[in-house]
Amino acid sequence: PGSLLVNGYQLAESINKDVDSRCLCLSVDEISSLKNKHIVFLGSLVSGLTLNEEVLLKLKKQGNTMVLNPIDDLCYKTESQLQEEVNMYDYVDGVIFPNKFVKEYFQDTYNKYKQSTYLPHPYDDKFNKTVLGQNRLFKVVYGGSRYNNAVLNNPPSWLELNQSGHSDSVFQLLVDSPIHFSHRESNSVDFYFKPSTKLSSASACEAVMIMSKDKSHIDLLPDYPLYVDDTIEDVNEKYELVKSWYGTSKWKELLKLMT
């Protein structure tokens, strides 16, 4: 999946190139003998990595420092599954949460993780290897996985959709488009718990965004004029606004905010 590629293999490649260190991407089956290392787990300790208390205690006794980056795994659990996952957090040294809200939520709810932090989601390194077109036509696009909400289930006619996930066609659509779109309803778990993946991608593409005011978004852009609420009326209003700004000095201000 895209987030594991970006937070795993690409991050390891960057560390190995820029830092005097050696970073490896290993499977769970390959870590049992590690000693005195820094280990970063990606995703779910329980359902994804199938780790248990015995394995984590063994790794800790072998002098390893262990950190978990759940990415967006917290969005997909029932209350009982979430509790099971959180119980395993006691055996790692820290957690990298996707935004400030999630970090504070877990600290307040479970009274733990005081040493943890939050980090915005990085963009795909593939964007760094792509030359952006200088004369992109005005269009607004949504690229990514299929998303179930009122706006995207009945999208406005001006919105171009490609919901084929982390694919080459989505990548090309984002690169070719000066305006990206993202919308999560304010009563959804994703609004609060999802990382800032689409915003990071838009920044890499030197594009502006029409987007909902997700918790991960306001960490990066607390004051932004193209945030939308849950209504299609507001979505259409922001579209008309960005259309009127396209190519003007206000457009350049937006690009400066985004990049």
Task: Set down the secondary structure blueprint.
Blueprint lengths: L1 H17 L19 E5 L10 H9 L3 E5 L9 H10 L5 E4 L2 H11 L6 E2 L21 E4 L6 H4 L5 E4 L5 H8 L3 E4 L6 H5 L3 H8 L3 E5 L2 H6 L6 E2 L3 H14 L3 H10 L1
Parallel strand pairs: 1-2, 2-3, 3-4, 5-6, 5-7, 7-8, 8-9
Describe the structure.
By secondary structure, this protein is α/β, with parallel strands linked by helices. Helices cover 39% and strands 14% of the residues. The protein contains 11 helices and 9 strands. The protein has helices spanning 2-18, 53-61, 79-88, 100-110, 150-153, 168-175, 189-193, 197-204, 215-220, 232-245, 249-258, and strands spanning 38-42, 65-69, 94-97, 117-118, 140-143, 159-162, 179-182, 208-212, 227-228.
Brief overview:
The chain has 259 residues and is of the alpha/beta class. The chain has 11 helices and 9 strands.
